[in-house]
Please model this.
Amino acid sequence: MAVIGAALTACGGNAVPPGTTNTSYGKTETSTVSGPKTGTVAGRSTKSFTQDVPRRSQTQKPKTTPKKTAAIPFKPIAAETLTGLSEKAVLEKVGEPELMRGEGDIRVWQYRSDECSFDMFFSPAAQSDAKTDDRELHHMLARMRRGNEKISIQDCLDQVRKQRLSRG
Model:
């Protein structure tokens, strides 16, 4: 144990007792020896120590150019222009819905933003055969997800599209 204690004492160097402050930390003492300057920093001997060396806080960081981010331009789609479009055309304009459900011959697509829900109701196209599954958008509905406040179909559609653009 005595050997371990002696070894630990030797490693202590210029240790400061608890509750006191090392007042010589960072101060430089130089000697008058000719040739390269030698001295001590905080009680430690240094070789070839020069006063010209800038401290870390004085060094300049390399200049970096800020990253540029491009804003994705938002082009609103007028909600009234969607009425009468096929499912495929709506899919191309608005994107994939979060929820699709069927209610008889009617299909309902639901889109959601953080604030509202937007429903599109597709019914069989008037000019289609019974053999095809073509549907057209006939009705839209928008409502707030929380509370009883009203929101227009256009405002909710815009929110849904903006949120999708921001998420990529």
User: Anything to note?
Assistant: DSSP finds three helices and seven strands in the chain. The CA atoms of residues 86 and 136 lie 4 Å apart. The mean pLDDT is 77. The helical segments are 2-11, 87-94, 153-167.
